[in-house]
Every structure is written in structure tokens, then in C-alpha cells.
Amino acid sequence: ALRQIGFDYIFDTNFTADLTIMEEGSEFVERFTHRDQYSWPMFTSCCPGWVRFLKSQYPQYTANLSTAKSPQQMFGAVAKSYFAEKMGLDPHKVFVVSLMPCTAKKAECELPTMKDACGDPDVDVVLTTREMCRLFRSDCIRPASLKSEEFDSPLGTGTGAAVIFGSTGGVMDAALRGDKPWKEAIFHVPGIGSLRVAVVSGLGNTRALMDALAKGDVQYDFVEVMACPGGCAGGGGQPIHEGTEYASYRGDQLWNLDANAAIRFSHENPEIQTLYQEYLGAPLGEKSHHLLHTDHNAWQAHPK
Ligand code: SF4
């Protein structure tokens, strides 16, 4: 459907969800093995609704955010550097349109800190999935009647681990439990010790967790936060079905896709391996630092 509309290349953001997992996972190991140099817990940073919430409501925790960019922003940065170089394209002539379940991502791509590949915004425009459906309808395109096609390469391959980015809980979910407004678990990692993790979605639940952390009622090493109830599956930019909430149904589809994926771990994604071999070097390396990480202190969030 997107090819009919006129897009030249169509990629899968799951590719850069894998890249986010590589960078953020490496960052966590780096922080955890130098514990006294960092503030705890480490928070995920892939949800721009959450990042803005933290920066405006709990700014004292800004340093706790992972510096890894969201998959959307990693995608734009890689498209206008690695991909443009590989294809011999002038990155200033590459226009990146991101299709997202999320209205907060429209503001994220406009942040002054998201221009790392060539000086232009790494992502030019964000359309929500709701807007995308309207676009299809206005062009009389019915995706269900079209034959399935592959994504373009080399930014078109994602693993099962990447697919479940869109649902709250990520890979930890099966082990999580709890009677609090969030879920929590302790993992015993040989040679490292015990990791205390928590997962929360919805900003009401998130506020309860943050207040408990601030009061010292709970302690964690790693906390995943998604602003929308149920995660991106319940994102504010998703199609609206009057009277029915599809977040958990969509989340279940993502878990099924993960369970049936040929490759389920990000570090086994062959295109991710090639990207590191050909271009980035290693997670947290100099190029990764420039293109894939960001300074959350370099812009102001203004509370309402
Ligand atoms: Fe956007 Fe909501 Fe997903 Fe956060 S949880 S990235 S605000 S859709």
C-alpha cells in the first residue's frame, strides 16, 4: 500500500528496535558493573511520552534515563548515514516518514537534539497509524486485498524481541508479577547478582511507581515505562474503534508474532550484525554514541 502511494523504500522499525535493545542492554551492563558511578534505577527511554513526563514531573531522575534513542530516532539516524552512504544517496535528499502508533513521536522527531546524521532532522515527518489508515482510504487502497511483500533491505529485518517492543513488559513479562499498579521481578544472574526489575504502563500507574521510588518504599535496578496503557499497542495514535479497546488484543498479536518468529534475539539479527561489522563497530562505540544516543538534558520540558 505504501509503495502504491509512492514511497521508494519501506523498512521495518523493528530493525532499530533490535538496535535499541543492543545499545540499551550494553548500557545497562556498563552501568551495572560500575554501579557507584550512576543513579539508580536505570529507566528505559524508548517512549517519548514517558521521557517528557519524567523531565517535567520528576526532573531529578533525568540522569537515570538510558541515553539510548528510541527505535524511531535510531532509524532516522541510520537511514541518513549508513543507508544513504551504502546507496550513494545525498542524505539531505532523503526524506524519512515514520509510521507510528504514537502522537508523542511527532514532538520527539522535532527535538533540537535529533539531528545527528547530517544536520537535518533525522526523521522528517511522523504519521500515526490512524492517519495512515485515512491516507489509504483517501487513495482507495485496501491493504487487505494486496499481496504480502517483503520489507526493503538492509533496514528491514526485525526479530521477535523487537516485535514485542510494542507491548508493555517486553521480554521480561512472563517472569513478572505483583499486586502493585506495576509488575516486578527479581532475576538472579550468575556472576553478577540479583537484578530487581519493574514494568509499568499508563501514566497514573507510573506516577504511583515514581512516588514509591522517591519515598524509598521500593528499590529497583531497571524499570521499563510506557506512557500508554498496555504500551504502544494502546498508543494514542492508533485507530479508534468506537466502544472497543483493542490494546490487549493487539498486544496478544505481538506476543504471537514473537513466539513464531524465526529469530527471537536481537544480537542474532544478521542485518544488525552486518551494521555493527560494516559501520558502527560495537555497541556503545564512538559512532553509536554519536548516532544512537542522546543527551536528555539538552532540551527543556515545560510542565503544564
Ligand atoms: Fe508513544 Fe504511547 Fe508507545 Fe509511549 S507507549 S511510545 S507514548 S504509543
Radius of gyration of CA atoms, rounded to a whole number: 19 Å
Helix content: 25-40%
Give, in spatial order, the strands making up the sheet with the most strands: 1-6-5-4
| Ligands | iron/sulfur cluster
What is the makeup of the main sheet? 4 strands, mixed
Task: Write up what this structure looks like.
By secondary structure, the protein is α/β, with parallel strands linked by helices. 38% of the residues lie in helices and 10% in strands. The chain has helices at 2-5, 13-32, 48-57, 71-87, 104-108, 129-138, 160-163, 203-215, 247-259, 270-280, 286-292; strands at 42-43, 97-100, 125-128, 183-189, 193-201, 222-226. It has a four-stranded mixed beta sheet, covered by helices on one side. It has a two-stranded parallel sheet with strand order 2-3. The longest helix is centred in the N-terminal third of the chain and has 20 residues, at 13-32. The protein is globular and about 55 Å long. The mean pLDDT is 91. The structure holds iron/sulfur cluster. Residues 47, 49-50, 101-102, 104-105, 226-228, 231-232, 235-236 line the site of iron/sulfur cluster (SF4).
